[in-house]
Amino acid sequence: MSETAGALFKPFKSRNLSLDNRIVMAPMTRGFSPGNVPNDLNVEYYRKRAAGGVGLIITEGTCVGHKAANGYPNIPFIYGDDALAGWKKVVDAVHAEGGKIMPQLWHVGSIRRPGVEPDPEVPGHGPSGLVMPGKKRCHEMTENDIEDVIAAFAKAAADSKAIGFDGVEVHGAHGYLVDQFFWGGLNERTDKWGGDYVGRTRFAAEIIKAIRKEVGPDFPVILRWSQWKQQDYSVKLAGNPLELQQFLEPLTDAGVDIFHCSTRRFWEPEFEGSDLNLAGWTKKLTGKPTITVGSVGLDTAFTEEGQKDFMDAKPASLRNLLDRLERGEFDLVAVGRALIANPDWANRIKAADDADLAPYSKEMLKELA
Ligand code: FNR
């Protein structure tokens, strides 16, 4: 093993999950599941990353069983016999390689436009029917809608456990439904599902509690969240550590085991006056393990325009990452695009055989390999 990468190759434990190393495959939507059912190509894609030494795979976002959960073509669902049978093949293949895998449970909320599977007529659903702040263009969720979606997340978690997944991740990031409740820009509700941090986190907290009720005490539950929204990259749910504490407290109390803190550049300090990044602050304030993410192993990084453009990412050196991991700033490291380019990224880093790793290019998204 490479001496320098040692911090990445220490075991990790949360509830009944034991990982050989700290490398997590970041959830990445690929849209290669026609009929919304994971197929042999999807099985092979994940099997290869497990064989390549990733400690934990988090799957692409997979839609829970609610009519408005999906927003894009060819997304794998996590309800219905066929989709669950497809996922079981993925799980079994990953386990056969000694890997661990969790699905990312997803509802796109108001991002949905009519015309998408499974029922083209169904409009987007949002906490206040807002597509963008001030723009009302979709269905405003009723109390019943909210209860239905919470139940759909809980059912998806129960089914995930039944088919052998090692835990679940709730997608609470990037401006999708759970995040639409977090964000005052799209959540103008005056009932218990809106208002202050306690109100705006209630939907996520109830999802976490409902999942826990289904899966019992031993099954790990991750919550992924982000400050930025695809609707507006400049948004911050929490502008300072005190606000961050108020945001995180109800979620921690609800039983989140691991916070997955989504940023596009892991080395950036979250607040002035400290080097800690978002995962660092989240760990410090909650005492829970955290996952960091954002341009690990890349020479280029997301700019403010997201995937549209890239910038020089030299500060993102592996040394910087390892030092932070070693210090305990965060516990796990998610890797996205570098793992699309190099399925064996983890093994190559472990063997210090990283001289000719393939650079990521957007062209690679055109096929699932
Ligand atoms: C993503 N990302 C993402 N995030 C998420 O929570 N659910 C998802 O389904 C997706 N889908 C997705 C698709 C593709 C093609 C990319 C490149 C990214 C974001 C991803 O998990 C990760 O946070 C970012 O890619 C940053 O990590 P890297 O790629 O810089 O290591």
Describe this protein's structure.
Residues 8-351 form the NADH:flavin oxidoreductase/NADH oxidase N-terminal domain. It comes from Kordiimonas lipolytica. This is NADH:flavin oxidoreductase. With 369 residues, this protein is an alpha/beta fold. It has a single domain, classed as Alpha-Beta Barrel (TIM Barrel), CATH 3.20.20. It is 31% helix and 20% strand. It has 11 helices and 16 strands. It has helices at 40-51, 81-96, 143-162, 177-182, 197-200, 202-215, 241-254, 278-286, 318-327, 337-341, 345-350; strands at residues 12-14, 17-19, 23-25, 56-63, 100-106, 125-126, 130-132, 135-136, 139-140, 168-174, 221-229, 258-262, 290-293, 300-303, 306-312, 332-335. The strands form 5 sheets. It has an 8-stranded parallel barrel, surrounded by 5 helices. A two-stranded antiparallel ribbon has the order 1-2. A hairpin with a 2-residue loop joins β14 (300-303) and β15 (306-312). α3 packs parallel to α6. The two termini are 27 Å apart. The relative contact order is 0.14. Ligand FNR is lined by residues 26-29, 60-61, 104, 171, 173-174, 224, 262, 264, 293-296, 298, 335-338, 365.
